[in-house]
Amino acid sequence: MRPPHTPRLNLRTALVGLLASALAAGGAAGEPAQASPTDALDVSFGGSLVGTTQYTTQGDEAQRGTLHRVSGTEQQVPTGVSLTGGTQGLRFDASSLDLESGNQSFVMETRYTATATPEMATYLSAGGNVFVRAQNGRLRYGYSSNATGVWVDTFKEATLPELNVEHALSLHYRWAESGVMMDVSLDGEALPPVTGASPATVSTGLGKRSGSAMRSTPTEVPVVSSPLSTRSGSTAPTGSARTSSCSRPRSPRISSTLDSTAPPLTAATPRPPRR
């Protein structure tokens, strides 16, 4: 029998090479990389969400930025935060992580149990236009860019994860000399990578924002904490994010990684909502 452990949400800064190696070696579902002293966000919700302003940490939790409710009606529960759809969500505005500079790659990981998958329900999102979401009955992951004045979605699709079952989801967005590479892993299994020559266009004012299991408006990027419980909802995925089920407690995380060789991301006005 495994000892009980506490759900955690984590956002960290690290070297790209180390983080990529950790992801590649992690393989098994439920074994995200371990927390680092440089984590920008590492919380297990032992603390308290105060209104819509700030999460108050407790113990060894780390928060280098501001984690807060979006609508103010999100309910903190023992397993994380309960969302009921609509505009509910959690948002993290990092104090040092800024995707708009173009010098940062990032990793986001979470555990969740979805009970519904409304159209455009977003599981992971960053910078306004990097996403993993439910769309047209599929799991769509990729990014949107506007390098030439025309919006282009670069993405791949997979089968939507089973409802009412816990899943581990990981996203790694990074630059290579040839352009962008985005790796997504579901329950420890790598999905086909997304590659493109143009970078994701960072929406104005959203360079420090990333999220998971939030509302799906393309111009909004609510951010998540990893213990996320969403129940029935119309525009947000419903479920709960948890820690791994491996024998040694691991931490779901949202991570950012520094890549000093990365070309700059393009800053632009938010993309208009899809009709």
TrEMBL record:
Protein keywords: Signal
The keyword Signal is annotated on this UniProt entry: yes
Signal peptide interval: 1-24
Feature: compositional bias, Low complexity: 240-269
Superkingdom per UniProt: Bacteria
Residue ranges, compositional bias (Polar residues): 226-238
Region Disordered, annotated ranges: 193-275
Descriptive protein name: Htaa protein
Species this chain originates from: Tessaracoccus bendigoensis DSM 12906
